[in-house]
Design brief:
By secondary structure, the protein is of the alpha/beta class. Helix content is 36%, strand content 18%. The strands form four sheets. Strands 12-20-17-13-16-15-14 form a seven-stranded mixed β-sheet. A six-stranded parallel β-sheet has the order 8-7-9-10-6-11. It has a five-stranded mixed β-sheet with strand order 1-4-2-3-5, with helices on one face. β7, α10 and β8 form a beta-alpha-beta unit. InterPro entries: P-loop_NTPase, SLFN_3-like_DNA/RNA_helicase. This is Schlafen group 3-like DNA/RNA helicase domain-containing protein.
Length: 580
Amino acid sequence: MTSFEVERLVMSPAELKVREALGGRFTNWPVVYVLNGTREVYVGESRNFVGRMRQHLASPAKKSLEVARVILDDRFNKSVCLDLEAYLTSLFAGDGRYTVLNYNDRMIDSDYYARADYRATFNEIFERLRDEKLFERSIPEIENSDLFKLSPFKQLNTGQAVAVEAILEQLFKDLATGAGSTAVIQGDPGTGKTIVGIYLLKLLQDIAMSDPDETIEADSVFSELFTEQNRELLRDVKVGLVIPQQSLRSSVKKVFRHVPALSPKMVLSPFEVGAAREKWDLLVVDETHRLSQRANQPSGMQNKQFAQINERLFGADGANRSQLDWIRAQSTHQLFLIDSAQSVRPADLPAETQRELIDVAKAGERWHPLASQMRVRAQTDPHGLDYVEYVRRMLSDSPPAPQRFDGYELRMFDSLAEMHAEIRKRDEEFGLSRLVAGYAWEWKSKNDPNAYDIELDGCRLQWNRTDKDWINSPGSIDEVGSIHTVQGYDLNYAGVIIGPDLRFDEASGRIVFDRAHYFDKKGVESNGFLGRTYSDEEVLAFVRNIYAVLLTRGIRGTYVYVADAALDGHLRHYLPYAPR
């Protein structure tokens, strides 16, 4: 039986007078409300709805909001209302129909009594609002979208919130004194590094653009940051988000177009940072491990640009200069988001440079580790390894004890065609289910659209036809994505093809690299600038990283097909095998 009511009213002083006269739950009870106009929406909660509405009516920023829907439930309390407010805000942001006017200062994921029961009611409330045309898409459709997954309106867990608060408190002190700073957020895949970076930028913009007369609820985790002094410190402060990967950068730009406080112009490539004539006060660098050292670039134009940027910034094109140096030279404050185990090419920022960054941050008490896994829904035995560590160990020279993960569909296939068929089924059921693979086959279809790239067991497939937002592109369910199209993204189910670039050498009992079956030219080529060549053992470390990234994309499950028979037999000790 439905316990809630949704009352609709026009935003006007006369309407509020009527509601005030009614009293009760409109003046002295916790409620959640949704205000909307033609293109904008605001979600709030209050114990005194009438009083809060008068504040909104007086706000120029909310003059476009014409209709209020008040969600009433005798069971509501403050914790429930805060959770429902955050839940609806995140869904509105992911749906994309309306521009969300909320600050993101209260988007914190906090537990409370009987939360699971209330959450079931939240879904009913969503459907009621959807019936009233406030949402266009279903919850699964919203949750599968980049607008939702990369939104600044995601609820932070405790560890993420602690990191954001500490970073901003330190930043405001530095802005006041004029000192520069370097901070690091470090975490495994799925710990939400990208989300923290986006959330932090939105929160900074909220503080900078906040109306001094706007009431910031005292129970907001970040309410103490909304001060006149901080607003003044942020006056004319220039911020940016640097993303080395083209595909992820393109997706984040799309998200920023839907957020009033943010702009696609804030999302930058390292080359855009290096070539800019003006500097930034703060640069947040996502996937820092993917910044390039001085190496042969994907195009002749980028090689020329790399040299020109070094000459302009440092007076000469030195082989010791990397894109990290550009970031430092072009900004006063930097926040680096790092996972060293996700470096996938020799040209990526060297491991020792990443360690130096982390050491500097630790010395300044500006190192913020993230530990909670937010992506993979694999329940771990308290005495076992978490899923990410288990996968990394499985591919290493020190494999783990065999382990199972409850609540997660993890299994191997001996037929690529069968795995593809299962991925298709999961995509029909949940969406966002794709095949991905290591770069163990030539990209023939790049020049011949009728050619097939991967042919195994009578199954013929092509690599991704686009390198921008491939996951959401038409036909991607029948293509295979590479590391360069999926790093930084979530999938519901990932069908991972481990190609013949990895073999199991039974004589040594080790996983080894087979250069003859590796076709990422940038993954093996020598570095003439540094006078470096890369041995099979050195490239093996990158290829292991690639497969570890691919094997940790799936939220609900991961399927695995292994081309090398000996490696297939080896991995059967660690991964469940699909029944025939």
